Automatic annotation (TrEMBL):
Annotated protein name in UniProt: Aldo/keto reductase
InterPro entries recorded: AKR, Aldo/ket_reductase_CS, NAD(P)_OxRdtase_dom_sf, NADP_OxRdtase_dom
Gene3D superfamilies: NADP-dependent oxidoreductase domain (3.20.20.100)
Keyword Disulfide bond on entry: no
Domain NADP-dependent oxidoreductase: 26-260
TM segment ranges: none
PROSITE patterns for this protein: ALDOKETO_REDUCTASE_1, ALDOKETO_REDUCTASE_2, ALDOKETO_REDUCTASE_3
Source taxon at top rank: Bacteria
Lineage of origin: Bacteria, Bacillati, Bacillota, Bacilli, Bacillales
Residues at the site labelled Lowers pKa of active site Tyr: 76
Length: 276
């Protein structure tokens, strides 16, 4: 199966499915996961400085033999690296660890208070061609409104917690209106709350001959969302990519939408103590 690309507001394209590597720190486990994904046809890896695995991601890519230029790499600037000079240094350190001279996408990981200065540094790195596209993560509508009012470059994407129990409907509409792509972190609910055992998902899995995880990922894809499910198990990495050969009916999309509880599983982006 071919993984389709989505187009950013600056014309650059992103594969709609990537591999997430949060919490994968052990060298062999990380490298085997990245290599399994690349062998399966993934061309998009989502890492971050704070995940502590950029070095292994870079090594795994080189060891895979796949050309760097064919692979879309995302990394993110962490809260304590916010600020103009700090961000420039953090970005260079990420490049050095990854062993590359450009990033496809660099994100502000959380809306820490100095995100405007951070963004200024990212705009310059973007204009210099060192980053193909710049975006944000965990931004609420009020953060985006502030950023849009005080900067030049419109973010290409916002990576936010999104799954059937927390579909982010309001933010999704806002992003659509502003031509900013929606990327889901925790697309499978991070293995929490037994989300994948929900009867609706199990039943739809039987109907389509797919697993509940594939049903959930397909639901995101139909919403135009970029997904980066995490797995270190080759069979699941493959399973998670086999979502482009079927589609859900509008009625089935609605059934999944009915799982909305309005409750996030993860951290609230307005938690000031965490962001400081
Ligand atoms: P996820 O929703 O991708 O869930 C991962 C868990 O689901 C795995 O631990 C695995 O046990 C399970 N799983 C994977 N494939 C499965 C399958 N086919 N069937 C059954 N279970 C399966 O959660 P995540 O890893 O937190 O999110 C994905 C990626 O998003 C991360 O790896 C990271 O790259 C990114 N992320 C970003 C932020 C952020 O603040 N920007 C926060 C969390 C995660």
């Amino acid at each position: 199966q071919t993984i389709p690309n989505l187009k950013f507001n600056n014309g650059v394209e992103i594969p709609q499915l990537g591999l997430g590597v949060f919490l994968v720190k052990e060298e062999n486990e990380l490298k085997n996961a990245v290599k399994a994904a690349l062998e399966t046809g993934y061309r998009h890896i989502d890492t971050a400085m704070i995940y502590g695995n950029e070095t292994y991601v870079g090594e795994a890519i080189r060891e895979s033999g796949v050309d760097r230029k064919e692979i879309f790499i995302t990394s993110k600037v962490w809260n304590y690296d916010h600020g103009y000079e700090e961000t420039k240094a953090a970005f260079q350190a990420s490049l050095d660890r990854l062993g590359t001279d450009y990033l496809d996408l660099y994100l502000i990981h959380w809306p820490s208070p100095k995100y405007i200065e951070t963004w200024k540094a990212m705009e310059e790195l973007y204009h210099e061609g060192k980053i193909k596209a710049i975006g944000v993560s965990n931004f609420q509508i009020h953060h985006l409104e502030d950023l849009l009012a005080h900067s030049e470059v419109v973010p290409v994407i916002n990576q936010i917690e999104t799954h059937p129990e927390f579909p982010q409907n309001e933010l999704h509409e806002f992003l659509k209106q502003h031509n900013i792509l929606h990327e889901a972190w925790g697309p499978l609910g991070q293995g929490k709350n037994n989300l994948l055992e929900q009867p609706v998902l199990v039943e739809l899995g039987k109907k389509y001959g797919k697993t509940p995880a594939q049903i959930v990922l397909r639901w995101h894809v139909e919403r135009g969302i970029v997904v980066i499910p995490k797995s270190v198990t080759p069979s699941r990495i493959k399973e998670n990519s086999e979502i482009f050969d079927f589609s859900l009916t509008p009625e089935d999309m609605e059934k999944i939408a009915s799982l909305n509880t309005g409750k996030r599983y993860g951290r609230n982006p307005d938690d000031e103590e965490f962001l400081a």
